[in-house]
Specification:
22-stranded antiparallel β-barrel; elongated; Maltoporin, Chain A
């Protein structure tokens, strides 16, 4: 997305305006609010490097530069050709978000980011984390840094949970919205998000905030405190900062009136002549293969299993009594218009997350030109997982002699010579599987930095980071064998007592019989069924040694040539352990496997800015920016990334800019080394024409090579003299990824195999023996392995418009400033190519199975801010354009209606300044989603569509109206 850094540097004081929203009337004018550098009298004023839209900046030659993340070159007044959005603390504070990441994720260039509020039933290691996703290319293609340094990964997929980064001292956030691998290395394919800390802060500042939704749930709390001081006559500086947040869970999805169990289903009245479409979006959809009390789905007679017969479609009430089940209409495992229950009702709208960070930094001037510094960071974040419920889709075998069998059912079985039947049961009465993702992170940095000669600077540092991660520990997660033994209850002929069948031959096995009919809560049986818990412990380590040098070795006719060069060595490693039962795949969910691995990276980089023309007709400035980085991976081989860019200032009003770059992403620890993790997955089998559960086995691939991406960006910045304070930028972007590392979903592997699109995928599908000559058996397992088989790309346009006006210039009786801003992104294409099949996701607002599969055509953020000495008000408007459920579907042919409507969200924030209590003292209030706008119907479909909210939590607000209030001060 384009950036805006408007630095007014006539003094050491720089003002940063808040960003939020713009009323629709102002949106039509295309006005927007500029982002200014944060007010920090003790810090050097920023340069305009990487700016997007800004009024011309005046820079004092003696003022040091702050290098914006779009480049490593430090040069007064230089503007990099790579678009970079710069967000300041004041901008964030005026909007008063619950978390910093909540605000950053509003930027239109970020699509599909993982947050604790996406309403998922996943048991993945990312649940509860905040993972940025630029361009919807995936969080693992967005490089997250802290003060220009890499951070030890929070997951084995190299993702950075930004909740683990220090929050209170963040001075600004730089978001580079284009390829930046030549400057910063691997993973910067989609861009970079860099948290820049105010490491020169002195004094005391604090911020305390509390929030809650209009429904009385989703509570939020945060407290931040920072203190900084100088010592040793000003040669030394020490700072310590801490933050704590506690974000509670939201209610079940049934607590919102917009939830109506909407899902995509096959049309039972489908006609080949297209008089009826193939699919429908229907409310009130549930499972047709299981109920909470139990549902008979098939019977076995004479060794032949049939889905028809006298007992099929008999369900059991909570008390265990058999009654008829009205199936209504069926579509795979789904059913509607009858008695079906929706397993989705157990979805929580938000995962609770709590924890905090501590950051400390000390620096000391050893000489006038050399400074030693050290940093320590600690974070501890605990997330709760609300996963799916334990569910058996018609695969519990009940024999005729089951001790808990209803007498009428037993009589029918005897009369019809039925030896057993299949029972489907969802254990809603048990509640969801509840686990945890706990992360503890340590970070140590020690370095020297200095200057010499005429403006040369250097930096050498060593860094060690470690993440200790605990995942799993689920309640309500049965041991599969224990459940099967407990459910197979019989009467012991020796004493007439009900026991497990397995106990008859093994009296000491400890099995406790369980009545599967109805909603049985026998604590003794539950204790046996859940006799152990699935648990994984992972330690991830990162070691870095880096050295860099910046300076201006010589000048040309157009000005000084600037360079930045350096080298880096990095080692990434991990060690994961699991319980013995996990390794035996004994659980319903979990089944972690022990693994370990490491790789080393050696890198060298060089970047330069060469002025080509200056102060010529139509060429006020013309600069070339070039960078190259050579990277050698111990496993993935050698690769070179590069960048070439131009900035052309026609005059003080008009600037053109453009870049072309080769960017890379190396395979991460999980893709390389992951041991086989096994879980249950519901799939639709195109060969059998039915849906059922299979085992999904995921493993790494040490033969992967780095992805390579070609990125093009071309833009224009216009700041007219005839309208002071106004700026406009438009940037075109095009990213193409080759050799993309891709791990399909189970359903995608099955579809590619069955459609003969990619017969190679058939090697990952395991079927049971043929049930009859030429009749294939059911799929038993799908193996998921990452491969360099994909191609991905995205293309579109970013734009930003801003206007800032001092109202006293209009009328001397008026005070304060008016700031208008609008930023937006249009995505023309977002494609994924697998097995020769290219799928277009731009303009699609619902997900198939992955959150990167929903990319609205338009997203924009508009704001109007008024700021005076005593009062500030910010109105924000967020927009997500209308789209389709599936781009491949045609209205009236593939689906009755393929439309998802557009959505506007309005936010309001008010601040009341109290100067008598110190600089920056303020009481503030904020309302998010002011009009309590419901999310539209945009159901997830595919393998996981049977358990979904009916909308897209990665795009839309599922919580509803939220209130926040707080107080902050600075002394």
């Amino acid at each position: 997305m384009p950036i805006m850094l408007n630095a007014q540097i006539g003094s050491r004081r720089t003002k940063f305006c808040s960003t939020s929203a713009l009323p629709l009337a102002l949106v039509a004018l295309g006005l927007a609010q500029p982002a200014f550098a944060q007010e920090q009298p003790s810090a050097p004023a920023p340069s305009t490097q990487g700016e997007n839209v800004a009024a011309p900046a005046t820079t004092q030659p003696s003022t040091p530069d702050i290098v914006v993340t779009g480049t490593r070159v430090s040069r007064t007044g230089y503007t990099a050709p790579t678009p970079t959005t710069v967000i300041s603390t004041e901008q964030i504070q005026s909007a008063a978000p619950a978390t910093l990441s909540d605000y950053v994720n509003q930027l239109p260039a970020l699509v599909g980011s993982q947050t604790p509020r996406v309403a998922t039933t996943s048991a993945a290691a990312t649940v509860g984390a905040n993972l940025y996703n630029l361009r919807a290319l995936g969080a693992n293609r967005t490089l997250v840094m802290l003060d220009g340094h890499r951070v030890v990964p929070s997951t084995l997929t190299s993702n950075i949970d930004v909740s683990l980064l220090p929050q209170a001292l963040v001075e600004r956030v730089d978001v580079v919205t284009g390829g930046a691998s030549a400057a910063w290395g691997s993973d910067a394919v989609a861009g970079v998000v860099n948290y820049v800390l105010n490491t020169k802060f002195t004094g005391l500042m604090a911020d305390v905030q509390k929030g809650i939704s209009t429904y009385g749930d989703a509570p939020t709390f945060k407290a931040e405190l920072s203190w900084g001081t100088r010592f040793a006559g000003g040669r030394g500086h020490f700072i310590v900062s801490g933050d704590y947040h506690d974000d509670g869970s939201a209610g079940y999805v049934t607590s919102r009136d917009w939830f109506n169990s909407a899902k995509v289903v096959g049309n039972p009245a489908y006609a080949a002549d297209h008089s009826q479409p193939k699919n429908l979006v229907v409310s009130g959809v549930g499972l047709g293969v299981a109920t909470d009390g139990g549902l008979i789905t098939a019977t076995t007679k004479g060794g032949v299993t049939s889905s028809s017969g006298p007992l099929v479609n008999t369900q059991f009430t909570p008390d265990g009594n058999p009654v008829p089940f009205a199936p209504g209409y069926r579509s795979g495992v789904l059913s509607w218009g009858g008695d079906a229950q929706d397993v989705s009702q157990i979805i929580r709208l938000a995962s609770p997350v709590k924890g905090g960070t501590v950051f400390a930094r000390a620096s000391y001037d050893l000489t006038d030109n050399v400074t030693a510094y050290g940093e320590f960071g600690y974070a501890n974040i605990k997330s709760k997982i609300y996963a799916r419920v334990f569910e058996r889709d018609g695969n519990i075998t009940i024999r005729r002699d089951n001790a808990y069998l209803d007498p009428a059912i037993a009589a029918t079985m005897a009369a019809n010579n039925i030896t057993s039947f299949n029972l489907g049961k969802m254990f809603l009465d048990w509640g969801p599987l509840v686990g945890r993702n706990d992360r503890e992170q340590y970070r140590y940095v020690a370095g020297l930095q200095g200057k010499f000669g005429n403006g040369w600077t250097w930096d050498i540092f060593g860094q060690h980071g470690q993440t200790n991660f605990v995942s799993g520990d689920y309640t309500n997660d049965p041991l599969n064998a224990n459940f099967n033994n407990a459910a197979d209850a019989v009467v012991n002929p020796a004493n007439g007592r009900i026991v497990c069948r397995s106990t008859l031959t093994n009296p000491g096995n400890g099995c406790v019989p369980f009545n599967v009919f109805g909603t049985n809560k026998t604590p003794e049986a539950r204790a046996y069924i859940e006799a152990a818990r699935s648990l994984q412990r992972v330690t991830i380590k990162q070691d870095v040694v880096s050295a860099s040098l910046q300076g201006e070795p010589f000048s040309t006719w157009a000005g000084p040539v600037s360079i930045a060069l350096g080298g880096e060595w990095r080692r990434e490693s991990y060690h994961a352990t699991a319980t013995d039962l996990d390794q035996q795949t004994a659980f319903f969910v979990g089944n972690f496997q022990p693994s370990n691995g490491h790789y080393d990276v050696k890198e060298g980089f060089f970047e330069t800015v060469v002025p080509l023309l200056k102060d010529k007709p139509f060429f006020r400035e013309l600069d070339l920016n070039g960078a190259v980085r050579y990277t050698s991976y111990s496993l993935a081989g050698d690769v070179t990334s590069w960048k070439a860019g131009l900035t052309w200032d026609v005059d003080s009003q008009l600037r053109f800019r453009g870049t072309r770059s080769r960017d890379i992403r190396a395979p991460n620890l999980s893709e390389l080394f992951q041991a086989g993790n096994t879980m249950n997955q519901t799939i639709t089998d195109p060969v059998k024409g039915t849906s059922y559960s299979i085992r999904q086995y995921a493993a790494g691939n040490s033969n992967l090579v780095p992805e390579k991406a070609d990125t093009t960006s071309v833009g224009v910045v216009y700041r007219p003299n005839w309208l002071p304070g106004f700026g406009l930028s438009v940037d075109y972007f095009d990213i193409k990824i080759a050799k993309a590392i891709y791990s399909n979903t189970s359903q995608a592997v099955i579809n590619l195999c069955s459609n003969a699109h990619d017969m190679f995928q058939c090697s990952f599908v395991t079927r049971g023996p043929d049930t009859a000559p030429g009749v294939p058996g059911q799929i038993t397992q799908v193996q998921l392995v990452p491969l360099n088989i994909g191609g991905e790309g995205t293309r579109g346009v970013d734009f930003e418009a801003t206007y800032r006006r001092n109202l006293s210039d209009i009328n001397s009786n008026w005070g304060g400033t008016l700031n208008l801003r609008m930023v937006g992104t249009y995505v023309a294409h977002r494609t994924v190519t697998i097995g020769g099949v290219t799928t277009e996701y731009a303009g699609q607002n619902a997900n198939f199975d992955l959150n990167s599969q929903a990319v609205p055509s338009w997203r924009w953020l508009a704001s109007a801010n008024y700021d005076s000495d005593h009062f500030t008000a910010t109105l924000t408007e967020r927009f997500i354009s209308a789209g389709k459920i599936n781009n491949g579907w045609v209205d009236g042919v593939d689906i009755a209606s393929n439309h998802v409507p557009a959505v506007f969200y309005t936010d309001l924030a008010l601040g009341f300044k109290i100067p008598t209590f110190g600089k920056g003292a303020e009481v503030y209030f904020a309302v998010q989603n002011l009009f309590d706008r419901d999310p539209p119907v945009a159901p997830q479909y595919g393998a996981t569509g049977f358990i979904s909210t009916g909308t897209n939590g990665y795009l839309y607000d599922l919580i509803g109206r939220q209130f926040r209030a707080g107080v902050r001060f600075r002394l």
